């Protein structure tokens, strides 16, 4: 699997605990990748770490699962969104899956001072309809460290031919 914008998130710890071993973490920030690798210690040595911008990265292999929490919604330029979708489509094998989590329509319109695009599961499905079929979606209210609530939508989609 590949975690897009994995940054310092503990998602990687969770997938390792589940027994997954072929795991790639991609992030724009080398600082974030180094912090995650340091935290994981020896367990991080078996992972693939890619310091890349998702809007310019070209995948060189395919994955069963693509996971993105809170990256796609930062892409406000249509050209960047098109580049992301191109990489997503190339990187996920037929019948593989992607989980794309973004702020929901009633979520914040900015994050860390940056503008975001908010999506419903229906928006995500329409945007990716050429190559992905919707499977399931879930709403989640994320509690920030300062106690604020942020509404997310998580879309699970399947790569179709
Ligand atoms: C809001 S954080 C989310 C981190 C993690 N996915 C989580 O849910 O906790 C966004 C992450 O995406 C990375 N990021 C932002 N734009 C990116 C891009 N164009 N390409 C790759 N990573 C990017 C940031 O460096 C940061 O680590």
Describe the structure.
This is Methyltransferase domain-containing protein. The structure is a single chain. Helix content is 24%, strand content 35%. The protein is an alpha/beta fold. The protein has one domain: Vaccinia Virus protein VP39 (Rossmann fold), CATH 3.40.50.150. The strands form 2 sheets. Strands 3-2-1-4-5-9-8 form a 7-stranded mixed sheet, sandwiched between helices. It has a two-stranded antiparallel sheet with strand order 6-7. Helix 2 (30-40) links the parallel strand 2 and strand 3 (48-51). It is globular. The model has no long low-confidence stretch (mean pLDDT 97).
Gist of the model:
InterPro entries: Methyltransf_25 (IPR041698), SAM-dependent_MTases_sf (IPR029063). The chain is an alpha/beta fold and 161 residues long.
Set down the secondary structure blueprint.
Layout: E1 2-4, H1 11-17, E2 24-27, H2 30-40, E3 48-51, E4 63-69, H3 78-91, E5 92-103, E6 110-111, E7 114-115, H4 121-127, E8 132-143, E9 149-159
Parallel strand pairs: 1-2, 1-4, 2-3, 4-5
Antiparallel strand pairs: 5-9, 6-7, 8-9
The structure holds S-adenosylmethionine.
Q: Between the first and last Cα atoms, what is the distance in angstroms?
A: 19 Å
Low-confidence parts lasting 5 or more residues at pLDDT below 50?
none
Query: Measured on Cα atoms, how large is the radius of gyration?
Result: 15 Å
Question: Assembly type of the shown chains?
Answer: single chain
Query: Helix- and strand-based class?
Result: alpha/beta
> Any idea of the CATH class?
Alpha Beta
User: In the residues, how many domains can be counted?
Assistant: 1
- What shape does the CA trace take? globular
Largest sheet: 7 strands, mixed
The CATH H-level superfamily is Vaccinia Virus protein VP39
Spell out which ligands are present.
Answer: S-adenosylmethionine
């Amino acid at each position: 699997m590949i975690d897009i914008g994995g940054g310092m998130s503990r998602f990687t710890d969770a997938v390792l605990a589940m027994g997954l071993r072929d795991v790639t973490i991609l992030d724009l920030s080398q600082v974030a990748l180094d912090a995650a690798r340091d935290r994981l210690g020896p367990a991080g040595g078996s992972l693939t770490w890619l310091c890349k911008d998702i809007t310019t990265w070209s995948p060189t292999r395919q994955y069963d699962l693509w996971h993105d929490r809170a990256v796609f919604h930062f892409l406000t330029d249509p050209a960047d969104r098109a580049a992301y979708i191109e990489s997503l489509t190339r990187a996920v094998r037929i019948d593989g899956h992607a989980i794309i989590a973004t702020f929901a329509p009633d979520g914040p319109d900015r994050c860390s001072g940056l503008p975001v695009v908010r999506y419903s599961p229906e928006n995500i499905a329409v945007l990716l309809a050429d190559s992905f079929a919707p499977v399931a979606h879930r709403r989640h209210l994320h509690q920030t460290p300062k106690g604020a609530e942020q509404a997310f939508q998580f879309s699970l989609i399947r790569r179709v031919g």
